[in-house]
Amino acid sequence: xxxxxxxxxxxxxxxxxxxxxxxxxxxxxxxxxxxxxxxxxxxxxxxxxxxxxxxxxxxxxxxxxxxxxxxxxxxxxxxxxxxxxx
Length: 86
Known about the structure:
The protein has 2 helices and 5 strands. The protein is of the alpha/beta class. The chain has a single domain, classed as Phosphohistidine domain (Glucose Oxidase, domain 1, 3-Layer(bba) Sandwich), CATH 3.50.30. The strands form 2 sheets. Strands 1-2-3 form a 3-stranded parallel beta sheet, covered by helices on one side. The mean pLDDT is 92.
């Protein structure tokens, strides 16, 4: 997903994968099963909102948007900082 406007097709439980988030992405977070971003740190928007909502998140992956495709089955372990394609 490249922009929050594309979120109309984003289904509950899907993993939100994007380069980074800002306040415009916030309405999609409650539908997300997990959040994965290329850019980010513990105090980034994605990390903070995910913690507030209790959603697993791995931020600062570097290349998640290049490696993950729509339809991939993915395991996200926010506690360990691991994103694994199944």
